[in-house]
Design goal:
With 157 residues, the chain is of the alpha+beta class. The chain has four helices and eight strands. It has a single domain, classed as PH-domain like (Roll), CATH 2.30.29. β6 and β7 form a beta hairpin.
Length: 157
């Protein structure tokens, strides 16, 4: 099992302000004729207390959404995954961005570098038809092509 890494965490002030907004919406529901404010307060509060976990397992890509009142699980089996793209990004050292593609849907998830290598092996083992793309190599080639086009454009002038 390989658990995804959260790279976008909310800052503390965002969470505090969100809870203040929940309180304002509840107060607005009591003091105004707009009772829909209660619904928005409940939805925002559920969002704040929910926890999302994404993992790659022997079964495939699994997502778990845990809330106080319910939980939800989504499984993309290895047989259903068409493509897997991996890319190292300079703004997240030690992490690898991976895109899992199933039909027309794509999920972006970050993993530790060592886990990403193992996930690529597991993907090939579980689904020999999965197409694996190296996004880092693609971006390097793309940048080189763009530089060459710019140099050719300067020579023509």
């Amino acid at each position: 099992m390989y658990q995804a890494v959260e790279v976008k965490t909310h800052k503390k002030w965002v969470i505090v302000c969100s809870w203040i907004l929940v309180a304002v919406l509840i107060a607005g529901g009591f003091t105004t004729r707009f009772k829909i404010a209660f619904v928005f307060a409940a939805l925002l509060a559920l969002t704040l207390i929910s926890k999302k976990t994404v993992m790659v397992t022997e079964r495939g890509l699994e997502s778990f959404m845990e809330m106080r009142i319910t939980s939800q699980q989504e499984l993309w089996k290895w047989e259903e995954i068409d493509a897997l793209t991996h890319e190292k990004l300079s703004q997240f050292p030690g992490k690898v961005q991976m895109y899992f593609t199933k039909d027309v849907r794509t999920r972006r998830v970050f993993f530790e570098e060592k886990d990403a290598r193992e996930i690529l092996k597991l993907a090939k083992k579980k689904n020999s038809k999965v197409r694996v793309y190296d996004g880092t190599q693609y971006m390097e080639n793309y940048k080189k092509q763009q530089q060459m086009k710019q140099q050719k454009g300067k020579k023509k002038k």
